[in-house]
Amino acid sequence: MANKVNLQKIKSEIETKQAELEKYEKKIIQLKNREKQIKKMASIEGRKKRTDRLIERGAILESLIENADELFNDEIKSILQGVFKK
Asked: Could you give the C-alpha distances from 69 to 7, 59, 60, 62, 77, in angstroms and in order?
């Protein structure tokens, strides 16, 4: 009789631990998904900053080159290479 009670207690404890394990596995999945979201948001933010920087710097350079809007990209590149060549 005592063995039967002990066996039931052990089975009950196993079920409790399995339920707890499932709960924590779900939490791990949620946290991993949150990590992916955060990394994606950081990547998007980094691209936005880079895009803003490139636009701003391009505008600065274009304002310093006479008739820049009429020149082709390779002409602009040649001008800048000439200016920055040592």
From this structure: 85, 11, 13, 8, 13
> What are the tokens at 38?
């955060």
Q: Residue 74 is encoded by which pair of tokens?
A: 């390779």
pLDDT band at 5 (very low <50, low <70, confident <90, very high): confident
The answer to whether 52 and 44 have CB atoms below 8 angstroms apart is: no
Q: What is the pLDDT of residue 2?
A: 75
Query: What is the tens place of the pLDDT at every residue in 72-81?
Result: 999 999 999 9
Q: Are 80 and 61 in contact (CB under 8 A)?
A: yes
The H or E element containing residue 86 is none
Q: Is 9 exposed, middle or buried (0-12, 13-18, 19+ CB in 10 A)?
A: exposed
